[in-house]
Amino acid sequence: MLLSKSCVYGLRAALFLANQEHGKFIPIRQMSDKLEISFHFLTKILQQLTAEGILESFKGPNGGVRLIKRGEQIPLIDVVLAIDGSELLTECALGLPGCGVKEPCPLHDKWAEARDGIRSMLEESTLTELVQKGRDENLRLTSENGFDILFEVKEGV
Amino acid sequence: MLLSKSCVYGLRAALFLANQEHGKFIPIRQMSDKLEISFHFLTKILQQLTAEGILESFKGPNGGVRLIKRGEQIPLIDVVLAIDGSELLTECALGLPGCGVKEPCPLHDKWAEARDGIRSMLEESTLTELVQKGRDENLRLTSENGFDILFEVKEGV
DNA sequence: TGTTTATGAGAGTCTTTTATCCAAAATAGG
DNA sequence: CCTATTTTGGATAAAAGACTCTCATAAACA
Q1: Which residue from A25, B12, B99, B140 has the highest number of Cβ atoms inside 10 Å of its Cβ?
Q2: How far is the CA of A125 from the C1' of C4 (A)?
Q3: pLDDT, mean of residues A20-28
Q4: What's the topology of domain B5-139?
Q5: pLDDT tens digits, residue range B128-139?
């Protein structure tokens, strides 16, 4: 698997948050329900994102988590590296310690280039951009539901 | 981790074999010693490569494994997919089942493109090509040793 | 005060990956 | 035929990852 499952969930959650009114705190329970991710598991992942300075949280009634910056300013790479660690995009394809420009393995150059393709794609894509695309084309965010699920706000009913 | 540890070992082993006289059976024990990989573990990995038609084996004295085709004709992708499975380069970045052109997730297009960068790099690189590079520039194949370790053949001493 | 909600630590389960071991089968050579 | 060599395949074990759950604490609200 290229990305860990935690990372995949983290991306889904980040997109979910970017699709909300900016600045509003969203309870984790609500996210776990909508995204069909175990509440406890998602909690751990979001705690990581909070610790890494991507989210901020607020306790108590009407509490929850929210993005620290606007979605426009958050590239996917931030989420991926916060969860899977920066080694993900620096590791040697042959597993050699210290593999790099100075002491490369035979695959180093090509591998680095291919990896950087992923990296730059993740650097160039922002949460907002994907949310926009998801809304415009009504794409999926869970196995069944698309971005529209996020709008059926039933508060006050 | 982008590639599993098994896959990484499999690549090292494939390069090792491509650096040997073509057609000669190399005992797994010798490979595990030189490549500093656990004999038993490497055995399992090579069995997979044999089952996938990349290697062939021969039992008994002077037995071992060898590449079925010449290294020129073996792209890295063969080894990677034989071990990590083809899902590796088709999985959805958001983990959605059935994500594809017909039912994409918001990240699908960009992710597919980035993944394909890795894929085509692995398709275009052959074992021989890397062995050649490794020899020419005397690069590493283990944490300590380079391709030269493969030449100290001590038979008949 | 009591309820809501996140935090942090931790225990426990399940699955997959990584790693080790052993008996069986095949083969070569004496 | 006997023995040493080497792969095969099954079984097992250890470690890591993916979860589930609980509990005690803290902050905020009403």
Answers
A1: B12
A2: 36
A3: 96
A4: Arc Repressor Mutant, subunit A (1.10.10)
A5: 999 999 999 999
